């Protein structure tokens, strides 16, 4: 479970950014769905990659 923590933290950060952008830009419909689908996945992937590089497990 510990190996998933960087991904989960990044996904949470991506979700928070998606909520913030959705509220600021007042998005609805398809653009909002795309935002909520992509940002958590991208945030999780980036956080996991950074974590792996820092620990030297690339």
Task: Provide a quick synopsis of the model.
By secondary structure, this protein is an all-alpha fold. It is built from two helices and no strands.
Q: What is the H/E string? A: HH
Distinct helical segment count: 2
What assembly state would you assign to the polypeptide chains in this entry?
single chain
Shape field: elongated
Number of strands: 0
Q: For the terminal residues, how far apart are their CA atoms?
A: 19 Å
Helix content: over 70%
Uncertain runs: none
Biggest beta sheet summary: none
What gyration radius follows from the Cα positions, in whole Å? 13 Å
The assigned structural class equals mainly alpha
Transmembrane segments: 7-27, 33-50
Keywords: Membrane, Transmembrane, Transmembrane helix
Topology:
Blueprint: H1 5-25, H2 30-55
Helix pairs in contact: 1-2
Give a description of the structure:
It is a single chain. With 58 residues, the protein is an all-alpha fold. It starts with a helix and ends with a helix. The chain is elongated and about 40 Å long. Helix 1 (5-25) packs antiparallel against helix 2. It has one domain (2-55). It has helices spanning 5-25, 30-55.
Give the tags.
single chain; 58 residues; mainly alpha; 2 helices; 81% helix
């Amino acid at each position: 479970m510990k190996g998933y923590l960087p991904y989960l933290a990044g996904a949470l950060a991506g979700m928070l950014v998606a909520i913030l952008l959705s509220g600021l830009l007042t998005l609805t419909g398809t653009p909002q769905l795309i935002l909520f689908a992509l940002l958590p996945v991208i945030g999780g992937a980036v956080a996991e990659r950074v974590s792996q590089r820092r620990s030297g497990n690339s």
